[in-house]
Automatic annotation (TrEMBL):
Gene that encodes the chain: sufC
SUPFAM superfamilies in UniProt: P-loop containing nucleoside triphosphate hydrolases
Keywords carried by this UniProt record: ATP-binding, Nucleotide-binding
Pfam families found in the cross-reference section: ABC_tran
Residues making up the signal peptide according to the UniProt record: none
Keyword S-adenosyl-L-methionine in annotation: no
Superkingdom of source: Bacteria
Protein name: FeS assembly ATPase SufC
Coiled-coil portions: none
Length: 245
């Protein structure tokens, strides 16, 4: 079944400073949207606002999932409705083992409580796909994880939750070449499973592996250019100056 995420004339403020100034974006399942733009222009703000971070105040506009506004839903309900955000800087949670955490989020997303052996088998299988060492499951969430391990842990969560839409914020930063390959493969197999994606990255080596269907450039809180993946090539060759004028 196809799903649709619609961002309509979205204005977002942080501490009463307006950051997003009228974003329009439609993403359907099966599509991969590359979101680019110079630093500090609102890419992360857009993803945080879609996910419902309370610090990001929607001052105008709407976010619709399959035609229904989700603005009144808190983060956990948006998550259960099928939105997922892989963070640019995932937090450490001391004292909570990664395995417990993963078990918890799987149960929080299931109608009925799932049997433990089934959850563990799913976690192990997803970890194996990511070449993520099972010893990482016993440690506290992200505690002492390398940059790349933290990013893999985000994708591990995504694989377990089967979202309709996944928002990915600079997941490729901090990944070595092998990890980048593995994460890309995992993202590609998930899109074949008809997830819609919005991916923030600066690098064509990542986009080359993921092959976005659409690309957008955000400058000063607005999408100034939208089109196909040729935009990514142009930015890599020429930078953003042409997009600013
Ligand atoms: N928590 C915050 N408090 C105040 N300003 C913020 C906060 N987060 C982001 N900003 C500001 O919002 C603007 C957009 O930031 P961001 O969305 O993170 O940009 P990008 O992801 O495109 O690099 C920047 O000017 C940044 O300083
Ligand atoms: Mg950012």
């Amino acid at each position: 079944m196809k799903h649709k995420l619609e961002i309509k004339n979205l204005h977002v403020a942080i501490d009463s400073k307006t950051i997003l100034k009228g974003i329009n974006l439609v993403v359907e399942t099966g599509e991969i949207h590359a979101l680019m733009g110079p630093n500090g222009n609102g890419k992360s703000t857009l993803l945080m606002a879609i996910m419902g971070h309370p610090k990001y105040e929607i001052t105008k506009g709407d976010i619709l999932l399959d035609g229904k506004s989700i603005l009144d839903l808190p983060v956990d309900e948006r998550s259960r409705e099928g939105l997922f955000l892989a963070l640019q800087n995932p937090q450490t949670i001391q004292g909570v083992s990664n395995l417990e955490f993963l078990k918890y989020i799987v149960n929080a997303h299931s109608q009925e409580k799932q049997k433990l052996p089934k959850i563990f088998a799913d976690i192990k299988s997803a970890a194996k796909d990511l070449n993520f060492d099972v010893s990482m499951l016993k440690r506290s969430v992200n505690d002492g994880f390398s940059g790349g391990e933290k990013k893999k842990n985000e994708i591990l969560q995504m694989k377990l939750l089967n979202p309709k839409f996944t928002l990915i914020d600079e997941i490729d930063s901090g990944l070595d070449v092998d990890a980048l390959e593995i994460v890309s493969q995992n993202l590609n197999s998930e899109t074949k499973a008809a997830i819609g994606m919005v991916i923030v990255s600066h690098y064509d080596r990542f986009f080359n592996k993921i092959q976005p269907t659409h690309a957008h450039v955000i400058i000063d809180g607005k999408i100034v250019i939208s089109g196909g993946s040729d935009i990514i090539d142009k930015i890599n060759k020429e930078g953003y100056s042409w997009a600013k004028s």
